[in-house]
Amino acid sequence: MSMDDVPVPQGPADALAAVAALRRRADQLEDAAVEQAMRAGWGWPEVAEALGVTRQAVHKKHAKRLIAADVMLRRRQ
Question: For residues 10 and 70, which has the higher predicted lDDT (pLDDT)?
Fold first, then answer.
């Protein structure tokens, strides 16, 4: 799908609502993908590299949620 295929919201309120909805969906997809990767045995460095962020950033954003979901997190070696 190219940007030409995306309908253009009418007016700033609709455009901003669309951006907010996309951000929420992107966060949901990231949460699911990070959990899947960690359950598959990936470490923080691999997840961070795949997301284009630092290990510290991905850990800060996801560690508490993953621990609460009983995901076994790899320790730094």
Answer: 70
